[in-house]
Amino acid sequence: MPSTQDIPADAETDEQPNRSGWQKATPVIMVLAYVLVPLILIPAFGSDKALIPVLVFLFGNAAVAGFIDGWTFRDTFSLPILAGVGFWLAKVLYFNDGTFLYALGCAATAAIAMFAGQALSKEPQVSA
Q: Positions of the region Disordered (predicted)?
């Protein structure tokens, strides 16, 4: 069994930061938007013409929330999973059973946008 002397000092304090303040709001707002916005879009455009606006919203919501979360917090798998769960809730409420594959697309879109936001949020290193 390794003693505490064998463990590097930085390994003991290497904890990931938790969400704070408005960082906690991003996943909640995303899931609420998945549940509430189709309720507005479908009647506003009519059920036969709402396909394109709803698809743009579904993937746009995942992309915007993922980018914001990556930019302000860090890259995690929690937000893409929540994007899939949020779409699943919307599917149960508004869409037919054949649309379950969009959950994977929403999760992938959120993950790609989150990694892009994380990459763009890092400040460039200045060489001495």
A: 1-20
Range picked from 20-29, 94-103, 104-113 for highest mean pLDDT:
104-113
Residue 12 has pLDDT above 60, yes or no: no
The three-state secondary structure class of 7 is coil
Domain spans in the chain, listed from the N-terminal domain onward? 49-120
Which residue is it, tokens 């697309």? 105
- On whether the CB atoms of residues 76 and 119 are closer than 8 A, the answer is no
Give residue 124's identity as a one-letter amino acid code.
P
What contacts 105, CB < 8 A, 6 or more positions away? 59
Of residues 116, 59, 65, 117, the one with CA closest to residue 87: 59
**Termini Cα distance of the chain:** 43
Cβ atoms of 41 and 57 closer than 8 Å? yes
